[in-house]
Amino acid sequence: MLEMNNLDYYEFLQISPNADPDTIHRVYRFLAARFHPDNPVSGDPEKFFMLKTAYDVLSDPTRRAEYDVKREVVETEKAPLSSSVDFMDQFEGELNRRLAVLAVLYFRRRNSPQTPEVGLPEVEKQMGFPRDYLDFTMWYLQKKGYITRADNSDFTLTADGVDFVESQRVNIPVLNKMLTSGASVTSASSNSSHEDLAELEMRTSEAHEAAEETEAVSPRVVVADMSAQGDRRTGSDRRISIH
């Protein structure tokens, strides 16, 4: 049974806390059709109940205002990610740090698309981990194209970073935990997630190499250069190639 106590209604509906009533209603109708028990493909009674509960609160201005106040208190008192995720292990710790930075920047990008920048002090606060140990982490994520760094040193998640987070959260348990309830992550889950991450990067690299090979051996179409006269001595025509 899914827990309701720690459920973030905005997170569950995948909308911004600043979403207007029309957006809330539109998203609710879409998800209701997906999770309705009568849907033979994606029906889910538990999620449908949670959806209905979230919608009943967010669609009522008074109840939503009360919920927002409570949610703000919970956000302020929320334990840092380091309380449930290992950032210190020599190998797993570094991989977890990368995922944590992506999660922090993803939340800001989605909830505040007009001001998606996050400074190192805020990253340090949410992770509960000293910024002094994040130099290699930030360098790697920048080189991968997942984040960018502004002139004021604030970091922002790129479109590639968003794609990675949204497409891989179901494959990487520790990332999904960071994006949802923030519940503790077991060592087994961490091992599995890092194996999935390593396999994902290997597949991505192989895909890029395959694309480059395909481009390198792509056939060339040869057409006659109709603007030039043939060589009367050899009878051959000049040719041009179009890739």
Give your account of this protein's structure.
With 243 residues, this protein is mostly helical. It contains ten helices and four strands, in the order αααααααββαααββ. The chain has a two-stranded antiparallel ribbon. It has a two-stranded antiparallel sheet with strand order 3-4. The longest helix is centred in the last third of the chain and has 30 residues, at 187-216. Residues 182-196 and 217-243 have low confidence and may be disordered.
How much of the sequence lies in strands comes to 5-15%
Full CATH superfamily name of the largest domain: Winged helix-like DNA-binding domain superfamily/Winged helix DNA-binding domain
Summing up helix and strand content along with how strands pair, one would put the structural category as mainly alpha
CATH topological fold name of the largest domain: Arc Repressor Mutant, subunit A
- What's the total count of β strands? 4
The level 1 CATH classification of the largest domain is Mainly Alpha
H/E topology pattern:
HHHHHHHEEHHHEE
Give the oligomer, counting copies of the same chain as homo and different chains as hetero: single chain
**Cross-sheet strand order for the largest sheet:** 1-2
Q: How does the major sheet shape up? A: 2 strands, antiparallel
Overall structural domain count: 2
What's the helix count?
Answer: 10
